[in-house]
Every structure is written in C-alpha cells, then in structure tokens.
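Bench notes, afternoon.
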Amino acid sequence: MSSVLQGLTKSLAMTVLSEIGDKTFFAAAILAMRHPRRLVLFGCLSSLIVMTVLSALVGWAAPNLISRKWTHHITTLLFFGFGLWSLWDGFTEEGEAEELAEVEAKLGADWKADTETTKKNNKEDDDLKKLKRPFLSQFFSPIFLKAFSITFFGEWGDKSQIATIGLAADENPFGVVLGGIIGQALCTTAAVLGGKSLASQISEKIVALSGGVLFVVFGIQSFLSTVDS
C-alpha cells in the first residue's frame, strides 16, 4: 500500500508541475474558448489518460527487458537530466507568453480556415446540435477528435511522458497511473474552465524552476536508495 501511495504522490506532483504551462495546457485553454467545453475536456483528458496508461505499461515492462538495477540507474539519470533541463529553461526563459503565443498561432491558423467555410450563425446552431447528441456519438465528433489528436501528438515524446515511463519502472505502476490521471484531470479541467485568462497569468519561469527542483529531488532520492541497497 505504501508503494502505491509513493508512486501516486510522485506521479501527481510531477504531472501537475509538468503539465501546467505546457503546450497541451495552452491548447486545451484555447480550444475551450472556441468549442463546447465538455467536448474539449473529454477529448484532451481521454488523450492524456491513454498516454499515461501507455507510458506506465512501457515502464512496467522495462524491468522485464532490462535488469531492474539498470532501469533504476537509467531512471535516476533521467530525473537529474530533466531536472537540469527544466532549471535551464527556467533561468534562460525570456518571454513567459512565448509558448502560449506559439500554440495560439497554430490553432489560430486552423480556426481561420474553418471559419472561412462556415457561417457564424450556422456554427452556433451546429454547436448546440453537437451538445444534444447522444453521449457516445460525441466521441466521433470533429471537436472531440481534434482535441484528442492535438493533445496526444503534443504529449508524444514530451518530458512528462518519458518521466512517467521512468517512474513506472521504479515505482508501483498502479500508483503512477492513478497519480498521473488525477494530475492530468486537475490541470486539464483548470485549463478548460480558466481559458486563456488563466493560461496567460501562469508564470512559465516559476513552473519550470519548480519542476526542475522536483525532478532533482526525485533524482537524489533515487540515488540514495541505490546507495542504501
């Protein structure tokens, strides 16, 4: 039970500090301003849950392919590496709204293309119709698929995904998945409900520095457990 709780708390803390101010956080906030929030929340959160489970499965399988001793050493190095990377990003961050502006520009181009082919009045009617669809049919709506795909490919290969793999290899995978899902749910819900106003007020520098310190602490803890054993 303690190993599950340890994996949950580590995963929860890592996920929250990694996802707040991340590109997918900004993408969810901007999408929620332009589409029904419920569909955006379902799409983004479903994608993040799938990514968390897949990452944890890879981490769980790693000790069966490589010795647990080596997976532990690799995880320790990953924690230190990501910690230093995040600290470097925090200290060298020039514009805190740079990532938000980048995501907004990309989504803005897609939005402009959509509005050129759809009238404003018809769009409002379509959104109302989509909200009235049966629950399961909403999973096949363009809005849901757009939110899912943007989030999934935005997270693929991200620091948080690789860190989740490392955590699952070193901690209880169930706790890692549970903590990751809770953290993703908190961050995504905040992004969808808070919108751009919340996203623009987040200091990327403070988030990066906090995440860097957390990763370094995880690395030290992992290293010390190796010495003790």
